[in-house]
Specification:
- Helices cover about 60% and strands about 0% of the residues.
- Helix 1 packs antiparallel against helix 2 and helix 6 runs antiparallel to helix 7.
- The longest helix is centred in the last third of the chain and has 31 residues.
């Protein structure tokens, strides 16, 4: 991680920088993940490059909530750094930090953070609604399978 971070700060080549940031986003260790999330707030780095780091770790059970927790804790600082406008409102994509959620408490926590804020973002309400729908569908699927899974594992 440290070697990649050093390389990122040393190169100005856009293609190299994209590869390095993508690699930084591939770490799954929670401690390293927190360090890479913090890069979104690093004034020495272009937020348009580090934006992708906000959505890392969501495919792993032990880290899926870290991007949301980071955003919740640093919301104002993150939003200040993001470009916004009619053609590129990065804030509209922030609700996507919850797309790996699959339970009501997490969905309600996401709603508490975004329900009012997304109205200000170009495209925000649509992205927010899609994330909520994804979570509800996951909840429904999990619920519909719960009895069958419990029965299966009781016989093992």
């Amino acid at each position: 991680f440290d070697a990649l971070l050093h390389a990122l700060k040393e190169t100005s080549d856009p293609q190299q920088r994209q590869i390095i940031v993508s690699t930084l986003a591939a770490f799954r260790d929670p401690t390293i993940l927190r360090r890479s999330l913090a890069l979104v707030l690093d004034p020495a780095l272009d937020v348009r490059e580090t934006f992708v780091l906000l959505f890392q770790g969501m495919g792993e059970r032990q880290t899926e909530k870290l991007p949301f927790e980071f955003l919740k804790d640093n919301y104002d600082a993150v939003v200040k750094r993001f470009p916004s406008g009619a053609t590129a409102d990065y804030r509209a994509f922030l609700p996507l930090v919850g797309r790996a959620f699959c339970d009501e408490p997490s969905r309600l926590e996401l709603a508490a953070l975004f329900e009012d804020k997304v109205k200000e973002y170009v495209g925000g309400p649509r992205n927010y609604a899609q994330v909520l729908e994804t979570i509800r569908l996951c909840e429904a699927h999990r619920s519909s399978q719960a009895a069958d899974l419990a029965e299966f594992f009781s016989r093992q």
